[in-house]
Amino acid sequence: MCDVGSARWHEPVLVAEVLGFLAPAPGKLIVDATVGTGGHTEALLSHGARVIAVDQDSQSLELAQERLKAFGDGVRFLHGNFCDLPALLGPLSLSQVDGVLFDLGASSLQFDRPERGFSFQADGLLDMRMDPEGPVSAHDLVNRLPEAELARILWEYGEERHSQRIARAIVRVRPIHTTGELARVVARAVGDKPRRYRIHPATRTFQALRIAVNDELAALETGLSAALAHLSPGGVLCAISFHSLEDRIVKRFLRRAALAGRVEVLTKKPVGPRDEEVARNPRARSAKLRAGRVREVAPGLATCP
Ligand SMILES: C[S@@+](CC[C@H](N)C(=O)[O-])C[C@H]1O[C@@H](n2cnc3c(N)ncnc32)[C@H](O)[C@@H]1O
Prior knowledge:
It contains 13 helices and nine strands. It is α/β, with parallel strands linked by helices. Strands 5-4-3-6-7-9-8 form a seven-stranded mixed beta sheet, sandwiched between helices. Strands 1-2 form a two-stranded antiparallel sheet. It binds S-adenosylmethionine.
């Protein structure tokens, strides 16, 4: 996090690497599909590109707008989910853009504000909606889902091997209202093996609920396809993920697009942060960047007689 006046901004990760792939320059138009508090967008604008900045979190958008006002109409802000990219970009009469960036997951702003209910580090009402107007909160899921459905979510989205035990414990004690209460229930449920965890025992449960609340994996699949459809030949798609479920979706998407001849994969392996970056910003530790460039001419067409 960066302190700027009274605002607390998310510290962007892999900025040099993103700039390397997206190559922002005057005349280029780039979509930042997850503007957050505007760190990556600021770097893109500073290199002369114009940016369309999207986020489903109106609070983050307001902060980004305030931060980036010096760039005037070089940046356009759109509130919405990146899975609706065609509907968001439609009214701008844009057919194609030169780059799209996805910096996935939640921001420090969301994690660090107790009232957003994302984190057990800061006790707050369970919520986890990236779009504060979203239809379902973590409170709804934790207190209403049947035990088997809760266990499935923890297993599929958190890869939590104690999913059934945790789901049983939740159902036994609910209602659960705050992030702190939930963290304690989870820690008690796996209480006989706490030392095996390198991370807090509730980390996977919180990840799983957040993914379910925001339908993150389905949104990513749709968002990647929409991004590819809007990229011009030579345009670059860049995605930063923070856990294996997201990274697998990005990897497979790029591989399928490459097999179909649409994209050249620019990252044989995902690009991670350098040691200095992790030392400065520990949240960058798990970041993985993958990128692909839309082919100028579909293979085969160039050799047609
Ligand atoms: C890791 S933060 C991005 C930080 C940003 N790059 C910066 O420099 O501040 C992820 C952001 O993506 C937003 N987000 C996540 N999924 C989204 C989706 N499906 N549609 C729109 N925004 C989304 C979140 O609300 C959050 O603000």
